[in-house]
Amino acid sequence: MAMSFKGYALIGLTGAIGLAASASVPTYAQEKGAIKIGLMLPYKGVYAVPAESIDRGFQIALEEFGNKSNGRPIEIIRADDELTPSVGVQRFNKFVQSDKVALVAGVVGSNVGIALSELADKNKMPMVFVNAFADEITGKFCSPYIARTSFSANGFEYASGKYWASKGVKTAVTMGPDYSAGRAFIGGFKRGFEDNGGKVIEEIWTPFQKTKDYSAALTQAANSGAQIIYAFYAGAEAIQVVKQHADFGLRTKIPFIGDHWVYDEALWPALGDLALNAQHVATHYPSIETEVNQKFVKAYNAKYKQDPDVSAALGYDNGKAIMLTLEKLGGEMPQDRAKFISTMRDLTFDSPRGKIKFNAQNSALLEKVYVVEIVKGPDGKMQRKPLDQFPGAGDLPGCTKSF
Amino acid sequence: MSADVMLTSERRAGAMKPLPLPASRRAYAALLVTIGFGLCALPSFVSGYVMTLAVEVMIAGIFASGINLLTGYTGLVSLGQAMFLGFGGYGIAIGTALLGWPLWISAPVTLVVVAAIAAPIGAICTRTRGVEFLLITLAFSQMFYGAAIKLRWTNGSDGMTGIPRPDLSLLGMSADNPTVFYYYVLVVAVLSLLMLWRIVTSPFGSVLVGIRENERRMMSMGYAVANYKVGSFALAAVICAVAGILQSQYTYFVNPDAMSWQMSGEGVLMVIIGGANVILGPFVGAAVFVVVKQALSMITEEYNLFFGIFFMLVVAFFRGGVLGSISALIGKRQ
Known about the structure:
The complex is a heterodimer.
Chain A: H1 2-22, E1 35-41, H2 48-64, E2 68-69, E3 72-80, H3 85-99, E4 103-106, H4 110-123, E5 127-129, E6 146-148, H5 153-166, E7 171-177, H6 180-195, E8 199-206, H7 215-222, E9 228-231, H8 235-247, E10 256-259, H9 268-271, E11 279-282, H10 291-304, H11 310-328, H12 338-345, E12 348-351, E13 354-357, E14 369-376, E15 382-390
Helix pairs in contact in A: 2-11, 3-4, 5-6, 11-12
Chain B: H1 2-16, H2 22-45, H3 48-73, H4 82-98, H5 103-125, H6 130-150, E1 160-161, H7 178-201, H8 203-220, H9 225-251, E2 253-254, H10 261-274, H11 281-299, H12 303-317, H13 321-333
Antiparallel strand pairs in B: 1-2
């Protein structure tokens, strides 16, 4: 038996080598029908709320173009990366090999983004990130096949740190989830804050996706003696941490300053009055008085009967950048797919948040960052009051490739 | 009472011989040949995605085979084998990216290091048995999982990217091509199976089965049972590390998730689904696992729920796993 097993295995091996030698390189069929876009978002779990908003914003952008590019219909194929790199990799492979998409859009988690960056590069598949803010994605892991339509963590948070330092805040304690995006955002804030005279007394990291209890971290923060807590949280984690901050009676002791993810509109129903009078930084809010934004807010309201939150705006920018690029390319994905990304890099367009331009690393830049306060409007509903604004910062260097 | 006796004797009959019944050997061999040819010819018939799934099945199959050596043959149920999966991936990542070694040095060095780490861990873990063994292996793997999340020089929870696939330019091929990578994994899977086959049919393998069936008797026969158990543990670890290397090459990426207890659990599930102590069992289990999970995830978002139900059905109706049930069926007909 052992002999025959070996014999069969030998036959198998020989066959394998023979077939491998004759295996032809798969050819990319020129798709004539719809342009397929793979949209990968974490539809379940802690980022389910922002994922849904991004999806909606994305659809609004596509509808602006009638869901067509140069007469060819656009087909969105959705996949859930479950905010887990290994799942994201599987879904990405399915997009490339089974669904045969022209490009992949979406991706919220930087952890998934980092895992996909190498895969996109190796598969020569254009990957247009909607969030994935970690600086490394267009830094250390940059690729001619990767672009990001939002902004980098540093672009947003360095500017924010600089702003708070200039407003008389001398000391801060930071809180954030312990993963790439959390580290990137808080790191950006710290650089901006300390470069401009502030001092981060303590950095507190909470386990990402694995905790619902922030009491130890909040107690530590309250006892640090800093003037403010500066935090980055999103989705379900933001709700829990803001609620617990209030439950412990810390609202009068040490303000919990965050960004538009901590105080996201989508979380207002859950936060209730806790969101009221919170000051935070934002890259977009619905009442920005530009024509482009008002048009977007109107279209979003018409379809979904609510104001878009920042994630919806980011999803819109993602969809719009893709559509504008396709339009420039005549509704065709070029043979050399890197050309799709380089065409996108040359785009400049007005978005709800302001003007969008890309840098040499294919990362979109922030024209301005807004400081707002959440107040009760004349209709009794919560809304944002603009307090101030400042320009976004540049990206961190780190990309060693040239394209 | 009588049912009890029957169960034990049945189990023993199946267990002492690697292949259950002489008459079913021919069927088994025919099955092997069919599978072998089918796998070799697969890329000529199917689209790229099926091949990707096949790659996932083979990698998971190698991983589960490592677990099977420990669980199925030696009778030690471990919930920590994923740590060696992670060691495999991190090993070549550290070797190639941090130390700058070529892959053909990094991979063997990784396997040697894994064996060297697994031996003392095995020496500690195999002093216990049953639930305690399960828990101590779990504890070890969680310890390394925690370390991988915190270690900054391996990028913490972000993991490491840019893991190289083998350079096949000498043969005029690129392993980035899915077809070529498929054959690469197939060759490694066949070699791993052959190695396992040698192990379980050797006197060493018989001692392992003896330990599973009656450890005290093996001791009284004069076998140094403890050494055999450590040997089984280290060999299982090396096979799991081979799977880890392939997995990280498949995704060009490794992160601490590879070491999570869920991965260990999935491996044990594959062994149970396919049939423990049958050499091809883990591969069949891996195939069922990957394909059913994939099919369910295309139908519903909540696929994990239905997958749980599916698993319960398998345990309830396929005693001895899929392969075990098939060979029992063949046995009955004769």
